[in-house]
Fold this sequence. Notes:
Number of domains: 2
Radius of gyration: 20 Å
Low-confidence stretches: none
CATH class of the largest domain: Alpha Beta
CATH superfamily of the largest domain: SPOUT methyltransferase, trefoil knot domain
Structural class: alpha/beta
CATH architecture of the largest domain: 3-Layer(aba) Sandwich
CATH topology of the largest domain: Alpha/beta knot
Amino acid sequence: MIFEGALSVKAVIQGNKRDVTEVWADKNKRSERDFQYIQRLCEGQKIPFIWKVREEIDALANGKTHGGVIASASQRRFDDVNKLKGLDFVLLVEGIEDPFNLGYIFRTAAAAGAQAVITRARDWSFSESVICKSSAGVSERLTWILTDDFDQMGNQIKEFGFKIFCALRDDSASEMSEANLNQPLCLCIGGEMRGLSKAIIQHTHQNIYIAYPTDTKVALPAAQATAVLCFEVVRQRKK
């Protein structure tokens, strides 16, 4: 598959989650530091780095926003659940189908200090380049675990010592600032259509919600809710 743009290309090389077969760069940008840096990365990993005319790159790229550099790489190698051991902030997202939104969630998670993201197992191969680009490359660096059994995943998360917090408004839920998020935790967030499944909700230690300053009944989109909740974790851990 093709990855476009300097951020994505650097991420797929440095992330070591894929086999990068070659990198093409616009020959008119030989003097630019970013391109020279990518060339050095390729040389260090023995990846063919080829200077091309812009028209050749345009012909292979999906759009015109590649900025003059693309990489050809294999599908991603996803991480084993045992990679969660020793971490203290994990994000589980369910029902996020749009690759742009998932990429934004990865970017937010990384900015807030989350070390891993768990999603449902599915074929992401047609979306991986979009996720990489919309996440500014961080989806290639974060631990990404797939599961087809959220019940089993819930048990494993708890065995690793995490407290599970589900973003869910119900009679038992606490406002996010009243929950203790300054501990090893797995924050679970569902998509707008179906929310979280019972398979993961049954494992929750505490349900939490975002308090709105208005009486609106409209829920935040998942990507925005992720940002609010993740940075509440940041706020509490700064105390």
